């Protein structure tokens, strides 16, 4: 795990709750499930690897079938379904038109409750994606392989923009709307994006937020960093009524809703791309201050999103499916947009906060739209519970299936989800995966595996985990001993590389347990996820949390170094250290410790400025729970900050460990006193 000096890991502060007993899937669920084959994991054994994954690709419509399932010649840069050609937009839209033309593809639920829910059919989605693709191609000059940054909230125009890019073979890079303009700028520069697509405003917790101001910051900041986008395309939250106080910049900003009138009725043939051509970039935090662009391919990724949506989410044509995640994260890409739409399902996009205007909101939506599958995070479940739960029993909805994702879920939160939200009728899957993995890796298969609260479950069919210790020895399976969880084999949803940084791809995810860097045998390249985990005797895995300098706040992944350098933009700050602290609602939250330049007084105003600087650099989700201004940070004699000690204090743990190697052991008591004040 992380060393004494460099940091403290989530896994080290994880609560190791006791073993729970099983809950069995309701018979009514199992009888209707898409996947009922109890021998599924035999079919996906390593003996059948990689051909077993053809079943995934067979869910898609290919322009040309692949010649080779898996090419390992440039390991660990694996290529899936090589020789195959397809288009993701065609697979998510056009191919459904024959049978499902008038079926709802997207239900859009605006946050203000008095605004009507909008239902967009597959045909309307097709029309709008075609028209916007024509605009991108003929007005903005977008070509295959161009990168496009999309910084948009939860509105239907977001998947329209993504699918229009995919139609042209352009690579989209969606940035979570809650991220700052500065964060968008960094991603524009790294991806060398040609365009920025944004929206004037959107609703969040009852307020119409000015989003366009972030586009101005993103444009200026990226230009100052040496890369300017050609244009800023601005969608209007209310078509025909520009709703932001931030003015339009003539010549640079284009109001999409006006310009689209010139493209009415236009159609764009989907560009047939190679299976391994990139579909999108999704930036995610790592151990350094610089976010990395996880690059996902087309054929492998889409096959994986489709198969897991069908068999883990159990989406049937008649289901109404609601994933409350944000499309700006990987969960939304795979399980709001690409997976459900590839299957021709009806997927809900909800603009706002789950608890707005009260905790009953999700249940009113579920009742009105007849939601059958519900997908959310432990943080949202804890927040709903804290807000009183919203009386699900008063609403006439029935979920057959519920998902939890993004963080470990405490058994008592799991049981509340099961009893109160699920009304004891729904099966639950606790799905463990990551931005990099494209789709679920560890989960129960809902009709065939019993559920165990607090444990994600056994692995997905075709996924073969192994837990290694620090020295590369295999931790005995089923021993309940913690170690680094890795996946032995590649799988189709796996990311292809880090954009423009193949060395970091190899060093971060593979180098530690690879014994022969020249090997082209996949067996030599276990994928290291960066999480601590343990496996119980029944084969179920429990995820303990990150083992690196990444913290998972409310299921959002943040690098501690990103927060620390944001704090250092305040000139009075001399040094900073971020630690993970347990939180009742958000699971984990950052606390930051700073020391000041000489002769600067600690004040409330300064504390606020530090917190605001972090929100400005990254986004409000990164705001620390506490800013502790301390006389000095505890350090080793060689000057390394001992974050482990700070983390112990932040987590009310009296055992700070050995402090004798510190150059300034007296600071520990001073900091502890500040905390107890
Ligand atoms: O630590 C794990 C945690 O979230 C991390 C991945 O974050 P991100 O790339 O943002 O993707 C989030 C959505 C998949 C993992 O390294 N994590 C994810 N799912 C679970 C989880 N921890 C425990 N249980 C889960 N089900």
Features:
677 residues; 21 helices; seven-stranded mixed sheet; binds adenosine-5'-monophosphate-propyl ester; alpha/beta
How would you sum up this structure, described in words?
By secondary structure, the chain is α/β, with parallel strands linked by helices. It is 28% helix and 22% strand. β14 and β15 form a beta hairpin. α9 packs across α10. It starts with 9 loop residues before the first helix and ends with a helix. Bound molecules: adenosine-5'-monophosphate-propyl ester. The site of adenosine-5'-monophosphate-propyl ester (PRX) has 24 residues, from α13, β20, β24 and β25.
Overall geometry: globular
Bound molecules: adenosine-5'-monophosphate-propyl ester
Q: Termini distance?
A: 32 Å
The main β sheet shows up as:
8 strands, mixed
CA radius of gyration = 24 Å
Strand neighbour order, sheet with most strands: 12-11-8-6-7-14-15-23
What is the overall number of helices?
21
Helicity, in percent?
25-40%
Q: β content, as a range?
A: 15-25%
Mean pLDDT: 95
Regions with little confidence, pLDDT below 50 for 5+ residues: 1-6
Structural class: alpha/beta
Number of strands: 30
């Amino acid at each position: 795990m992380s060393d004494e000096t460099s940091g403290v890991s989530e896994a080290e502060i994880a609560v190791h709750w006791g073993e729970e007993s099983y809950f069995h899937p309701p018979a009514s669920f199992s009888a209707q499930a898409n996947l009922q084959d109890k021998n599924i994991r035999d079919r996906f054994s390593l003996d059948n690897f990689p051909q077993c994954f053809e079943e995934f690709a067979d869910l898609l419509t290919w322009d040309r079938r692949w010649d080779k399932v898996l090419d390992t010649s440039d390991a660990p840069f694996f290529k899936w379904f090589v020789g195959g050609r397809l288009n993701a937009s065609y697979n998510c839209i056009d191919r459904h038109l024959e049978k499902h033309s008038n079926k709802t593809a997207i239900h859009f639920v605006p946050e203000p409750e008095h605004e009507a829910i909008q239902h967009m059919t597959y045909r309307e989605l097709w029309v709008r994606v075609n028209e916007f693709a024509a605009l991108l191609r003929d007005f903005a000059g977008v070509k295959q392989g161009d990168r496009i940054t999309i910084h948009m909230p939860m509105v239907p125009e977001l998947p329209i923009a993504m699918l229009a890019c995919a139609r042209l073979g352009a690579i989209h890079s969606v940035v979570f709307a809650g991220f700052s303009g500065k964060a968008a700028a960094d991603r524009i520069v790294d991806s060398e994006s040609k365009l920025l697509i944004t929206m004037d405003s959107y609703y969040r917790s009852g307020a119409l937020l000015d989003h366009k101001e972030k586009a101005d910051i993103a444009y200026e900041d990226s230009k100052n960093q040496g890369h300017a986008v050609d244009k800023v395309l601005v969608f209007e939250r209310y078509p025909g009524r520009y709703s932001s106080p931030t003015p339009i910049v003539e010549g640079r900003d284009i109001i999409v809703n006006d310009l689209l009138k010139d493209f009415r009725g236009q159609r764009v043939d989907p560009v047939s791309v190679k299976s391994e051509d990139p579909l999108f970039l999704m930036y995610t935090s790592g151990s350094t201050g610089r976010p990395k662009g996880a690059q996902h391919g087309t054929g492998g990724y889409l096959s994986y999103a489709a198969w897991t949506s069908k068999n883990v989410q159990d989406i049937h044509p008649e289901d109404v499916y609601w994933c409350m995640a944000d499309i700006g994260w990987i969960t939304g890409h795979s399980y709001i947009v690409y997976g459900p739409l590839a299957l021709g399902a009806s997927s809900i996009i909800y603009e706002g906060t789950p608890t707005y205007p009260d905790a009953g909101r999700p249940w009113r939506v579920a009742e009105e739209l007849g939601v059958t599958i519900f997908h959310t995070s432990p943080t949202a479940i804890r927040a709903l519970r804290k807000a009183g739960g919203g009386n699900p029993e008063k609403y006439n909805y029935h979920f057959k299936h519920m998902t939890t994702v993004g963080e470990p879920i405490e058994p008592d939160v799991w049981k509340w989800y099961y009893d109160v939200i699920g009304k004891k009728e729904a099966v639950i899957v606790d799905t463990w995966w990551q931005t990099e993995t494209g789709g679920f890796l560890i989960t129960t298969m809902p009709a065939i595996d019993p559920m165990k609260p607090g444990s994600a479950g056994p692995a997905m069919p075709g996924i073969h985990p192994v837990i290694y210790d620090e020295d590369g020895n295999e931790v005995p399976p089923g021993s309940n001993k913690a170690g680094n969880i890795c996946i032995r084999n590649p799988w189709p949803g796996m990311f292809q590389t880090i954009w423009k940084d193949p060395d970091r791809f190899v060093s971060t995810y593979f180098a530690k347990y690879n014994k022969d860097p020249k090997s082209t045998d996949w067996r030599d390249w276990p994928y290291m996820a960066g999480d601590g985990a343990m496996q119980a005797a029944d084969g179920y895995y429990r995820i303990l949390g990150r083992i690196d300098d990444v913290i998972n706040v409310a299921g959002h992944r943040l690098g501690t170094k990103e927060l620390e350098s944001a704090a250092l933009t305040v000139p009075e700050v001399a040094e900073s250290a971020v630690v993970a602290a347990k939180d009742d609602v958000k699971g984990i939250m950052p606390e930051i410790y700073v020391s000041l330049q000489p002769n600067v007084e600690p004040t409330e105003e300064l504390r606020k400025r530090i917190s605001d600087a972090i929100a400005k650099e990254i986004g409000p989700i990164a705001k620390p729970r506490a800013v502790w201004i301390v006389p000095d940070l505890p350090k080793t004699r060689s000057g390394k900050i001992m974050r482990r000690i700070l983390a112990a204090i932040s987590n009310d743990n009296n055992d700070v460990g050995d402090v004798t190697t510190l150059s300034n052991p007296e600071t520990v008591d001073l900091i502890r006193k500040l905390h107890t004040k």
